[in-house]
Design a protein that fits this description.
Layout: H1 3-21, H2 27-43, H3 50-60, H4 66-76, H5 87-99, H6 103-119, H7 127-136
Helix pairs in contact: 1-3, 1-6, 2-4, 2-7
């Protein structure tokens, strides 16, 4: 299995987990968050890699040009840009509080896995990228 198929499988597993544990899941909102996380991370070292467009395609099914990816990376990497946390995070916490479950604890490793996969998609996971991940998560 290639890294793009693996990425797609990880994303699908994450979506399925959220769908099965939250009353209302907004797939578009969550997809936008994951894409913004990836673009923000890649933008910390703003050199385009074809792997970025292929990773975005694996998640969204949409093709992106190098110009689109680079522009989005630069926009998302702006320090003043704050990511909007999807409502499913709060939904998982609410379910856990009501039902005394630990879904959020099961969710976080899945989220971390996809973020690391996206950050390292070009096999060049830099210290700058790792530091960026830690600062905004």
């Amino acid at each position: 299995m290639d890294k793009y198929q693996q990425l797609k499988n990880e994303y699908t597993a994450l979506e399925n987990f959220i769908t099965s544990h939250t009353p209302s899941f907004h797939a578009e909102e969550f997809e936008a968050f994951i894409l913004a996380c990836a673009l923000k991370t890649w933008g910390s070292f703003p050199y385009y890699s074809p792997d970025y467009a292929q990773a975005l395609f694996a998640i969204t099914g949409n093709a992106y040009t190098p110009e689109q990816v680079t522009t989005a990376m630069l926009c998302c990497a702006e320090e003043e840009r704050i990511l909007v946390i999807p409502s499913c995070f709060q939904d998982l916490l609410s379910v856990d509080m009501r039902q005394t479950t630990t879904h959020i604890g099961d969710f976080l490793p899945l989220l971390n896995s996809i973020l690391v996969s996206l950050a390292s998609i070009n096999d060049n996971f830099e210290v700058e990228e790792a530091n960026t991940q830690l600062l905004w998560i």
